[in-house]
Design goal:
The protein is mainly α. The protein contains 13 helices and no strands.
């Protein structure tokens, strides 16, 4: 028979075995849980690594495959034209209306349709065409290094305006354009071209010789210049009539063909083809000087 001491020992052994079993079970459960967690983390990591390249590939911009893209020189020329003939270029164009202010007060211009007709005449048969001819001949003379011819063109252009206010308008813008071009966009030959003119340089001549000095093609300069000119006229009309932004854009769209055809005619014209038939617009620029209330300088 077992003694009391033996019973105590057996009881102690049972307790020890029970505790050991519990610990083993807990260790086993813990091991299983950790295995599951590690497995889940591994799966998630694999998923992230798989998805991330896909996301990076999707968000990457498509490759540019444009065999007709602009060359570096063409891009630079476009950049300069867009800058020089932008409304933000500080030549003060916003302060001139070329007589449109008087035409609005007189009742000649009162809506989008009449503004379109007035500007079409100014472009094709008035100041637009004449300025285009002067720009073209100044560009060609400057490009060819014909200093005497360039001076003659500059003198003729300065004398070809019909009123004192139009003279102020084109000469002030020309002077501002030249000053800014020298300060920010100077290049070899520009100073020499300017000195050849030896006097007042009106706006179209200034644009023509600066674009020639920078090697910008004449045709591009012509159409950009006429677009800027008509855009400024529309801006003045929109403030005076007034017109909304949408109607202003409609007028600009309707004048596209006139701008293109006028630019082409100016490119093909000689100095003997100069002439204006917009008598009402010329009178408007003359009478604006004595207009009672004025927002614009011309």
């Amino acid at each position: 028979m077992p003694t009391v001491g033996m019973r105590m020992s057996l009881k102690a052994i049972r307790i020890i075995l029970r505790r050991t079993t519990i610990r083993m079970v807990m260790i086993t459960i813990t091991t299983m849980i950790m295995a599951v967690i590690i497995s889940m983390m591994s799966t998630a990591t694999t998923t992230i690594m798989t998805v991330t390249p896909m996301l990076m590939t999707t968000s990457k911009p498509p490759p540019i495959d444009d065999p007709c893209g602009m060359e570096q020189g063409e891009a630079a020329a476009l950049y300069r034209l867009m800058t020089w003939l932008s409304p933000a270029f500080p030549v003060g164009a916003f302060s001139y209306s070329s007589g449109i202010e008087w035409a609005v007060e007189a009742g000649d211009i009162g809506d989008a349709a009449s503004l379109r007709d007035w500007l079409a005449a100014m472009l094709a048969d008035g100041a637009g065409f004449c300025d285009g001819v002067f720009l073209a001949h100044a560009h060609r003379a400057a490009s060819a290094g014909e200093d005497v011819e360039l001076r003659t063109i500059a003198e003729l252009a300065a004398a070809f305006v019909p009123s004192r206010e139009r003279q102020l308008e084109t000469s002030a813008q020309g002077r501002a354009f030249i000053d800014i071009a020298r300060a920010a966009w100077n290049c070899d030959g520009l100073d020499r071209m300017i000195s050849c003119c030896d006097g007042v340089i009106v706006y179209p001549v200034a644009v023509g010789l600066a674009s020639a000095a920078h090697g910008i093609p004449l045709a591009s300069t012509m159409h950009a210049f006429l677009h800027a000119l008509v855009s400024n006229w529309i801006s003045a009309g929109a403030r005076l009539i007034p017109l909304g932004q949408t109607d202003s854009q409609r007028v600009l769209a309707l004048l596209e063909s006139v701008v293109v055809s006028t630019g082409q005619r100016a490119l093909d014209a000689s100095l003997d083809d100069l002439g204006s038939a917009t008598f009402r617009a010329d009178l408007a620029s003359l009478r604006h000087e004595t207009q009672y209330t004025r927002l614009f300088r011309s």
